[in-house]
Amino acid sequence: MWNYAPQMRYEEAELLRRAQIAEEEAARAKAAAVAAAQALQEAQKARQQALDMAANMARYNSAMQQQQVQQQVQQQTQQQQVQQQQQQQQPQQAQQYHQLQQYQQQLQAHQQQQMQQQQQHDYHQQHQAQQLHQQHMQHQALHHHLQLIQHQQQQQQRSAMSPSEHLLQQQQPPRGPQPDRER
């Protein structure tokens, strides 16, 4: 019986060693499982973060595109408003230019009318002056003609007198009021 004792102790020790190895392997497997679970959780977390980031980027891109579209719409609206204002201003400018041309034409016509009136007034004054001058000249000529006629009549009367009558006419004193010498 003593001969089997060392053999039994060896087998027992071997069993214990194997059990310890199995426990260690189980512990390592458990640790590996825990690490794998943690890695899985981290992977899931990273995946969720990536999904969230992608969603955020998509929302950002969508918002940027929408903002760009709004800016383009606003720019187009502003351009249309500017074009409408220009189209509205063009008739107004044309109307103002037309009114200005009409005013200039009226002013020119008024100035021409004033010039014509001034010319007519000057012509009328010149015509009146010429008429007055002609009347004055005619009056002087008529007066001179009357003087000539009177002079000719006097000469004819003198030539019709006899020499004695002519002498008496020269010797007669002028008739006028004579003072009364008796008083």
From TrEMBL:
Region (Disordered) location: 113-183
Highest taxon above the source species: Eukaryota
Keyword Coiled coil: yes
Keywords: Coiled coil
Biased segments, Low complexity type: 113-140, 147-157
Coiled-coil intervals: 12-56
Protein name, as recorded: Uncharacterized protein
Organism of origin: Phytophthora ramorum
